[in-house]
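Renewal narrative, Specific Aim 1. Our central claim is that a sequence can be written position by position from structural information alone. The example that follows is taken directly from our test logs and has not been curated for this report. It begins with the structure tokens describing the chain, in the order in which they were read.
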């Protein structure tokens, strides 16, 4: 596995690979790799000639009160894992190279960035769309791979790709889960033993809503109630929001139907976790 820090080197290699007719699959990450990331890399390997993954803890997607400094970093361990998952090129740019002095340009996907998680994380999705666009411009992939866990992020990236006529396919793969259903996330590392047990409530509550839907319940309110009451029985997990929305997330669904998305965010102690299901 080749490790590239330099933006110009990454860009030139990507151009050369394209010139040689190779397809490039890309997995952008912030590191602290877990099985969710690795499954994206393994999948990219099956579908592309060359797999590029990036590790970049993007400062512009953290709000001032958030965990940018504490965000888990393990470059050595990540290199081993990425190599094992079949990554050919690991791109690890420095913050000063991505955002040099005088940097001023940001991408905002209007409307979609200010709902759901965007309400409590102002500026977060602006940071995400900006870095993803920059990485796509540098790595020049044919296909970029993202996990369904970050559902709003995917909707925003897909919208950006359409609106800005980006020449890249955005592929979405299912959320990878722990045995008790907890969605894999780098932030799960923050949970202590008790919090880790409580965290299973996110997926359990979503499953309860799904099971009601499968029994024929179509009312958004009833499904929301099911999630709220699942959280009521769990004193250390605080539901931040539950949203039952159209797959494009712009509108809340009046009645639930196949394809409706249920997205939740909750705080377990100091850790904020998200999850979602598509009915
Ligand atoms: O999903 C993430 O890990 C990040 O938001 C991403 C897409 C790598 C951008 O920093």
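The sequence written for that structure reads:
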């Amino acid at each position: 596995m080749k490790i590239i820090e330099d933006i110009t080197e990454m860009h030139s290699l990507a151009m050369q690979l394209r010139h040689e007719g190779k397809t490039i699959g890309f997995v952008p990450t912030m590191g602290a790799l877990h099985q969710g990331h690795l499954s994206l890399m393994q999948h990219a390997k099956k579908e592309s000639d060359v797999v590029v993954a990036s590790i970049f803890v993007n400062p512009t997607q953290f709000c001032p009160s958030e965990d940018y400094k504490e965000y888990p970093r393990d470059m050595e361990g990540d290199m081993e894992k990425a190599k094992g998952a079949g990554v050919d090129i690991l791109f690890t740019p420095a913050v000063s190279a991505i955002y040099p002095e005088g940097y001023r340009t940001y991408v905002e996907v209007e409307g979609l960035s200010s709902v759901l998680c965007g309400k409590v994380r102002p500026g977060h999705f602006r940071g995400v769309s900006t870095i993803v666009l920059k990485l796509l411009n540098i790595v020049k992939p044919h296909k970029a791979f993202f996990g369904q866990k970050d559902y709003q992020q995917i909707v925003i990236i897909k919208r950006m790709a359409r609106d800005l006529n980006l020449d890249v396919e955005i592929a979405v793969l299912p959320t990878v889960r722990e045995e008790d259903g907890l969605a894999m996330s780098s932030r799960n590392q923050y949970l202590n033993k008790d919090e880790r047990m409580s965290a299973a409530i996110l997926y359990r509550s979503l499953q309860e809503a799904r099971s009601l839907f499968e029994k024929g319940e179509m009312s958004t309110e009833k499904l929301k109630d099911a999630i709220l009451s699942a959280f009521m029985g769990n004193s250390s997990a605080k539901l931040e929001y539950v949203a039952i929305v159209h797959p494009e997330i712009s509108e809340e669904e009046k009645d639930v139907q196949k394809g409706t998305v249920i997205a939740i965010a909750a705080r377990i102690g100091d850790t904020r976790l998200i999850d979602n299901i598509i009915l």
